[in-house]
Backbone:
């Protein structure tokens, strides 16, 4: 891990990125709230709207953050960008032909899903603040890989249909490799590892008894 950026380099990259893209942080939070709203108050178009929002967040993060900010600092960042773009395309395809549906139900899975979402939107900045990572040196919700991945797992936990295995691969990979930024002092990502491992195990167990959307 000696080739990884230093903590100062990572924080400086977050700072430059956040200052350059303002007020996208506000837009990302609004989109996150809309996605949760449609997961709770289900309508005929809820799944498509939520998938469209996830697609935008993953595509934005992959193209703007990973390619233009992280990649020049850390070459594997370009590969991360490619993976995020692929995930974004998967969600976009689900807008055109739904493959996953989201709906909050009063059960353990949905409750844990809400906790994941809360960590993505609120926990990241709070934990960051506790270790001195204040704005603009923060991992902005929906605009960098880690909180975006946690948010995605939160919505997957609220799926009322089987989540395609292909939708889980890249988020789980991002959760596993979170050990790298953690080693550089980004302790906020401890929650990503927990979310990825716990979420994947629970989703696979739950979905073993469910059916994939066929239309």
Residues:
């Amino acid at each position: 891990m000696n080739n990884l950026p230093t903590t100062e380099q990572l924080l400086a990259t977050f700072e430059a990125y956040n200052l350059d893209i303002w007020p996208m942080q506000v837009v990302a939070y609004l989109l996150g709230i809309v996605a949760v709203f449609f997961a709770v108050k289900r309508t005929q178009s809820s799944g498509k709207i939520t998938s469209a929002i996830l697609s935008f967040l993953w595509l934005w993060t992959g193209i703007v953050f990973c390619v233009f900010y992280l990649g020049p600092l850390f070459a594997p960042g370009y590969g991360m960008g490619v993976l995020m773009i692929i995930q974004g395309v998967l969600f976009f395809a689900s807008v055109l032909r739904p493959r996953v549906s989201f709906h909050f139900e009063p059960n353990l899975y949905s409750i844990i899903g809400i906790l994941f979402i809360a960590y993505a939107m609120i926990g990241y900045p709070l934990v960051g603040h506790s270790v001195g990572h204040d704005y603009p040196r923060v991992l902005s919700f929906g605009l960098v890989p880690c909180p975006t991945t946690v948010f995605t797992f939160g919505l997957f936990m609220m799926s009322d249909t089987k989540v395609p295995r292909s939708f889980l691969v890249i988020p789980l990979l991002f959760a596993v490799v979170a050990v790298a930024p953690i080693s550089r002092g980004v302790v906020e990502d401890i929650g990503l590892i927990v979310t990825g491992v716990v979420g994947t195990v629970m989703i696979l167990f739950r979905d073993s008894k469910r059916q994939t959307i066929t239309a």
